[in-house]
Every structure is written in structure tokens, then in C-alpha cells.
Amino acid sequence: MAKVHVLDHPLIQHKLTYIRKAETGTKDFRELVDEVATLMAFEITRDLPLEEVQIDTPVSEATAKVLAGKKLGIIPILRAGLGMVDGMLNLIPAAKVGHVGLYRDPETLKPVEYYVKLPSDIEERELIVIDPMLATGGSANEAIHSLKKRGAKQIRLMCLVAAPEGVEEVQEEHPDVDIYLAALDEKLNEKGYIVPGLGDAGDRLFGTK
Ligand code: URA
Q1: Atom 4 in ligand 1: residue holding the nearest Cα
Q2: Please, are residues 135 and 193 in contact by the beta-carbon 8 Å criterion?
Q3: What's the CA gap between 45 and 70, in Å, rounded?
Q4: 80-137 pLDDT, tens per residue?
Q5: How confident is the model over 140-174, as pLDDT tens digits?
Q6: Distance between Cα 117 and ligand 1 center (Å)
């Protein structure tokens, strides 16, 4: 079963409070999401493997550590996932970025892929799918399917806020995908919003509505 990691670093929790506040405007919302994405990138990369290398410092030879293992890929789900990309790239600038766009079919209400552009070597990368909100889990599940269908082998999911319903759906459908959150909220309401949540992440990021 996939693990759920709630990243409870005090800076993440403090900034998330301001992200949630209804009175936070677009500029501050965007900056805070960017900052939290950087902090979450720090936490989500905590377990990356290291290897030893020999180097020369100005003083002596030394055995030092560098990242080993798989390269990273960041996969925002359009459009709200875009708000977390730059924050992550601050810490992992060599990561490649792929995009998955989904829309909701008005009849089936299921997410349908309309745009997918990925790094050519996704099967060799550790992929981090990002979307600020994990609500019903429909989009995250579809995005992960879309990556697996194209050869992805190692995937993590990173969201700001999740509803328990969404977490359960992803865990059921993709038990190999660990989930990283800044907060696990109470529930979904009848309109599909996370409660207490932060409203519509895409609208708040881009100033639409
Ligand atoms: N998507 C959002 O942007 N907000 C929610 O609360 C749920 C889904």
C-alpha cells in the first residue's frame, strides 16, 4: 500500500495557512505556493540515494557525496500544477518537466487526456506528479495511468491539500505511488471542493473567475 506523507515542517504549515485564507490575493497566493513547493521539494527528496566521490578541496583530498540513482522528472497536471513547478525547480534545476492536461467529460464526468508531453526517457526517471489539490483522485489517477502507459516505473504524487476520499482512490488504484501532502483535510463537499481546503487552486493562482 502506498504511504501518505504529511510534510509537517513548520514553515510549510505556516505558509499553507496564508494560502488557505480567503483574503490572500493572487500575487501572494502564487508566491506562497511557489515557496511551499520549494520546501516540499526539499522534503520529498530526503530519501534520494547518494554515492561517494573523491574530490580535492583547496586544503586536501576528501571523500564527498553526490546524488546517485535515477534522475528526476516533474509532471504538473494542467493547469493548477503549473503553480508548483518553478518552486520545485529552485531545488532540483536539472529535473525535466513533462505536462499532462486533462478535462472532465461532461457526460461521464471522468477525466480525459487532452495533452501529454513528456521527457523521452521517463522510464529511467523518478517522476513527481504535482497538483495542488487531491480532491476525488480522478485526475491524479488518470495522470498516473497516462505515465505508466508510456513506460513510467517510479512515480510519486505531491499535492498541497488532499481530501481523504482522493487519497483512498489513489491508494486503491496505484498502491505503488507514495503521496506527499502539506495537509490532509476533512472531506469533500457536495460541489467537489476540499473542506476546509483553499478554494479553486487554479483560479486563485491565475486570477481567473
Ligand atoms: N480543485 C480545487 O482547485 N479545489 C478543490 O477544493 C477541489 C478541487
Answers
A1: 200
A2: yes
A3: 12
A4: 999 999 999 999 999 999 999 999 888 888 899 999 999 999 999 999 999 999 999 9
A5: 999 999 999 999 999 999 999 999 999 999 999 99
A6: 24
pLDDT digits (tens, 9 = 90+) for 97-106: 999 999 988 8
Ligand 1 binding pocket (C-beta < 6 A) is: 80, 133, 135, 192-194, 197, 200-202
Pairing mode, if any, of strands 99-104 and 96-97?
unpaired
Q: From the candidates 104, 121, 150, 208, which is the catalytic residue? A: 104
Helix (H) or strand (E) holding 138: helix 138-149
Q: Is residue 75 pLDDT above 90, yes or no?
A: yes
Rg (C-alpha) for the chain, rounded Å, is 18
Greatest Cα-to-Cα distance within the chain, rounded to the nearest angstrom: 68
Q: Tell me the helix, strand and coil percentages in the chain, rounded to 5.
A: 35, 35, 35
Q: Can you give the pTM of this predicted structure?
A: 0.96
